[in-house]
Amino acid sequence: MREIFEISDRYIEPGDANGLLYEPLDGGATYRATRRYEIEFEGDKKALETFIEKTLLDPISQEMHEGEDPALSDFTFVLEYGMKPGALDLEKEAILTYYKGIEEPGFELKELKIRQRVYLFGGKGDDSDRFIRDICNAAIHNWSVIQAG
Amino acid sequence: MEERPCAVLLKFPGTNCDSETARALETVGFVTEVIPISALKPESLVGVSLVVLSGGFSYGDYVMAGRLAKLVTEQKIGETLKEFRDNGGYLLGICNGFQILTQLGLLPEGSLVENTSGRYQCQWVTLENRAPDSPFLSQLPESFEFPIAHAEGRLVTSEASIAAGYRESGAAALTYTEDVNGSFEQIAGLQDESGRVFGLMPHPERFLRRRDHYDPDWSGGNEDEEWGSGYYLFRSLFESVTSDEE
Question: From the CB of residue A72, how many other CB atoms can be counted at a distance below 10 Å?
Fold first, then answer.
């Protein structure tokens, strides 16, 4: 079975997108960042959700969105990136080490993929190439872009 | 033979302020022991008066600052820290240690999230001592300076009214005198109801001696005074611990 959880911060205001780039955009644009966890598992879905809420979500400052569709709306595009298969993902390793220490988790975690999402608000859809160039590192990252529907 | 109180400093992968914090604690009179989290057992705290979670970037701040340290601590020793507090023990969390204490639920509800500046901030700040009776602050004046160095130091609560209540209740033991990082109610440090658990974002261990103040324009304090404000936080704590043990 496969589940997707996307976590966003309640209190972090959209930032100036130029802060992510080496050269500023022609017009103003803002961004928000989220983290997306894609999980392959077997066993009790409720136990998985409990694990996610305890491990990955801060109920005071964060919100969790379940499913494939983007957690935020009204964006110009979303840049999604993460570590390439085979590249060392220390966050993933830390989570897996913790999971392996749980005596009876109630589910078997088969695969965990962690992706960062950068939502751009304002600007133009074809600005995405500049964000890819300045944020992603081709040596360790792979990425995709979701354009506004 | 005089017996000095023992302070244990928990060290996670990424903790990097334990040596200077241990030095500060030893300067005021504690015996210290740094225990790596991998070696921590419930019995590690037997005979200990103070547990310190010092600054750094435990587990690389992955997921969110303090989260993995909280999970691993609970996995290793369960409710031992809560029992330690209930049995009269003191807990101090500095910077990342404060983030871990909030995650562990040992302080009133709160989370430390990214500064409103969106940047890592390293600067001196002026603080207001709002709990002069606190075991951690009793020897500090009404206003003093400490350095901060953090990216995730903005204290938030699930509702803003909860943080406002902390000013009323005294939980907001330490506040910034100006808006430094967007913390609700400008809160820099929180204490629990017992007063024996205290967390703060600024670094008292980095201002142990007056000469440690690295701002060349600083003219505060008495030039003949050897000690910086940080010394008085640790000294307050030592006096409280030893008076409890007498």
Answer: 15
Q: What domain count does chain B have? A: 1
d(Cα A138, Cα A117) in Å, to the nearest integer?
16
Which residues in B lie closer than 8 A to residue A10 (C-beta atoms)? 156
**Contact state of B68 with A90 under an 8 Å Cβ cutoff:** no
Which residues, including other chains, have CB under 8 Å from residue B167's CB and lie 6 or more apart? B130, B175, B185
Residues of B in contact with A58 (CB under 8 A): 64, 67, 103, 111
Looking only at the bridges linking them, the beta strands covering A107-122 and B31-36 are unpaired
Strand partners, A140: none
pLDDT in tens, B21-36: 999 999 999 999 999 9
Chain A CB within 8 Å of residue B109 CB? yes
pTM: 0.93
Q: Which residue out of B95, B150, B152, B213 is catalytically annotated?
A: B95
Give residue B121's domain range. Answer: 6-245
Question: For residue B232, what is the domain's CATH number?
Answer: 3.40.50.880
Complex ipTM, two decimals? 0.88
Write out chain B residues lying below 8 Å of A19, CB-based: 118
**B168 domain residue, yes or no:** yes
